[in-house]
Design goal:
Helix content: 10-25%
Strand order of the largest sheet: 8-7-11-10-9-14-15
CATH class of the largest domain: Alpha Beta
CATH superfamily of the largest domain: Glutaredoxin
Number of helices: 5
Strand content: 25-35%
Number of strands: 15
Mean pLDDT: 88
Length: about 290
């Protein structure tokens, strides 16, 4: 029996033993799932494991993503290519690994799920201080919108897709934008020249109507905050400018995170990786960007 087949049988046996059914903690909004996957990276400094996990039925498609480990001792002895079984805890605004056990190892040469091909165009990765190129997209109202038409405004831009369920990924980006919008709108001394874009990385499914419904969940003001779709080639180019990588394999999307602030003169002021920033951080960047000449 070859190694790949042994690994497949091992993972299959885990499904038959544990499944991925959710359990609820009485008196809380906390759900737990028993999940299997393969560690792709151990981030000891950030207390995170990047895991390629299989589908969690009823909750989330297969994905490769970083997941917080609140008890760092659980990470001891774990390494890339370890096959693991873990308990994933999810609340409305957080998610983490509560327990984890190594159950095998995957060959370093084992193939990753094959990403689906998509056309793209070559663009340079941008850095702070660069002039932001123009992009014309479509908002949740079905209207064409462009970045250059927003010159004179601070623009905060992030990437999401509406079916992403994990609370510290796309929902956190949208919630932080919602809080920033509310903070700026409630402050009479705040600048008035600011806008926000949430750009979908799943334009096939995130049509303007889908985005409009999603935007309503976050109480967006369409005069300030647009949810953006468009041609996949252009979305990929915009993402590539900032090191935002996303790929679809087996009909599921994996991605990292980027949030960008463009100042009123049209220059890139900040490129923020991942999800460690807060709504207050964003408000501070928007205030600074709105004052740029």
């Amino acid at each position: 029996m070859n190694f790949s087949l042994r690994v497949s049988l091992l993972l299959a046996s885990l499904v038959s033993i544990t499944g991925c059914a959710a359990t609820s903690k009485p008196g809380t909004n906390q759900q737990s799932y028993v999940v299997k996957g393969v560690i792709r990276e151990v981030r000891s400094k950030d207390a995170e494991l990047v895991i390629r996990h299989e589908e969690i039925p009823g909750y989330m498609k297969a994905m490769t993503m970083p997941i917080a480990v609140k008890d760092r001792k659980l990470m001891s002895g774990l390494a890339s290519n370890d096959i693991v079984q873990f308990k994933l805890i999810v609340t409305p605004d957080d998610g983490w690994i509560e327990s984890i056990k190594k159950v095998g190892s995957e060959s370093p040469d084992a193939p990753e799920p094959k990403p689906q091909f998509r056309p793209s165009r070559a663009v340079e990765e941008l850095k702070v201080g660069d002039i932001m190129p123009d992009f014309t997209m479509t908002n949740e109202l079905g209207k064409a919108v462009s970045l250059h038409s927003l010159k004179g405004n601070a623009v905060a831009l992030t990437f999401i897709f509406t079916s992403c369920p994990f609370p510290t990924f796309c929902p956190l980006m949208s919630e932080n934008f919602r809080k920033a919008q509310a903070t700026l709108a409630a402050d009479s001394s705040a600048p008035k020249n600011w806008r926000m874009w949430s750009v979908t990385i799943d334009p096939e499914n995130d049509t303007p109507d889908v985005l409009k419904t999603y935007a309503a969940r976050y109480k967006h003001d369409p005069k300030r905050w647009s949810f953006i779709t468009g041609d996949l080639v252009e979305i990929t180019a915009l993402a590539d400018h900032f090191g935002l990588k996303f790929w679809k394999a087996s009909n599921s999307i994996s991605h990292n995170l980027r949030t960008v602030v463009i100042d009123a003169s049209g220059r890139i002021q900040a490129i923020v990786p991942e999800n460690k920033w807060t709504a207050d951080d964003l408000v501070g960047e928007i205030r600074k960007a709105a004052a740029a000449k």
